[in-house]
Design goal:
two-stranded antiparallel ribbon, alpha+beta, 1 helix, Ku70, bridge and pillars, 4 strands
Length: 108
């Protein structure tokens, strides 16, 4: 997967205009990851999803996301719907960056 610039713009120095882009310094595979540990024993801690009503642990297969429409009432959202929302936001960001670049070019 190619890296995407966080920010794009132009730098104008006298009569010279240079495009500038800001990229992340590391990829996802290079990021430093930390684990939660017990300070007394040094052992790693695990988080467990627990059903609010029953108090029982929930398997990863049964874990989902939902939007609260009323107190205690949720509409379940499928992962495909979340992906569609995220990709639409990425598309909107890209369109805004291109529009700003075009606006700046028009000013030159």
């Amino acid at each position: 997967m190619s890296r995407r610039a966080f920010w794009k713009d132009y730098l104008k120095l006298s009569l010279v205009t240079c495009p500038v882009a800001l990229y992340p310094a590391s990829s996802k595979s290079q990021k430093t990851r930390f684990h939660q540990i017990n300070r007394k024993t040094g052992n790693r801690l695990r988080q467990q999803m627990v059903d609010e009503e029953t108090g029982r642990a929930v398997d990863t297969d049964n874990k989902g996301r939902g939007y609260e429409i009323a107190k205690g009432k949720y509409v379940e959202i499928e992962p495909e719907q979340i992906d569609a929302i995220e990709s639409r936001h990425a598309h909107d960001r890209d369109r805004q960056v291109r529009a700003r670049a075009a606006d700046r070019q028009a000013l030159l």
